[in-house]
């Protein structure tokens, strides 16, 4: 019984407060804020006094002025204006839907006209199928080829033909990533995006350009890549630049497909830090750790030494060398260790026999220095 009376009292208070709030919003909002913290009985008494005092001060108010306040909602906005804005928004929405529908009909009509008249999409058709089925198959073929064209590079040959004699064509081709191998992007609130030049980049490009055709191949956009390479390559040793539109989009990654590179793959070396970017020709790739902008980095010097050894040894197929280093996370460190072991072995043999035969020294030098055998 007590609980029932308590609920009834709460309901009564809520009704009184709601009426008070509605009455106070018609006069002044300050009154509503003041009265919200008072008791309901006192609120109703104060509202009566308030309205009586207003009626005494303004005896000229008529029924028309009271009705003029009715279009105002509890937020003080005009209901007629809100209704007009709503009607205007609905009208604009209908116009927008009309133009969207008309555009779609034009696209579909044009597509149907092309599919009906173009002989290219009629290949491999079964004449026994009814015409709507054949038209559907043509449309499916056109959509599939459209998405394949979006994933494929913009051109079939990524590089022009090699230079003919008497021009000098380097015997090997080096395809290297730019981002986080030659430069590192950094962003701050004061400067925005800036690219930090890796230590020993100039030395690396100068050493490698003597025996390699240098190609920068990156998945970044051209309008970002070209200004960076212009400031990085002062001596113009980078022969070609390939950007995002030269990659294949496979499984959410921009992949470098060197089958389109127009070069002998036995003489092509790819250097990258991302294994997903070179997964189509992993046997041609040398994956090294990513550079995150550390000062005092010496990895490019080791890479230049490795590449010069490959070219000096006149390797017929670079994939044999790269397949050995593919199993290591830090291949340049392994190469450096093989170099140290080879030098120690040569010093020991010189102490024993003085000199080595030329053929034996060359074969041992090549195997130990490159393959670690």
TrEMBL record:
Assembly: Component of the TIM23 complex at least composed of Tim23, Tim17 (Tim17a1, Tim17a2 or Tim17b1) and a Tim50.
Sorted UniProt keywords: Membrane, Mitochondrion, Mitochondrion inner membrane, Protein transport, Transit peptide, Translocation, Transmembrane, Transmembrane helix, Transport
UniProt key word Transmembrane: yes
Chief location category: mitochondrion
Family matches, as Pfam families: NIF
InterPro entries: FCP1_dom, HAD-like_sf, HAD_sf, TIM50
Protein name listed in UniProt: Mitochondrial import inner membrane translocase subunit TIM50
Compartments, record wording: Mitochondrion inner membrane
SMART domains the UniProt entry points to: CPDc (SM00577)
Signal peptide: none
Role noted for this protein: Essential component of the TIM23 complex, a complex that mediates the translocation of transit peptide-containing proteins across the mitochondrial inner membrane.
Membrane topology annotation: Single-pass membrane protein
UniProt keyword Transmembrane helix, yes or no: yes
GO cellular component: TIM23 mitochondrial import inner membrane translocase complex
Protein family: Belongs to the TIM50 family.
Transmembrane regions: 93-116
BP-aspect Gene Ontology terms: protein transport
Organism the protein comes from: Aphis craccivora
Domain named FCP1 homology: residues: 167-310
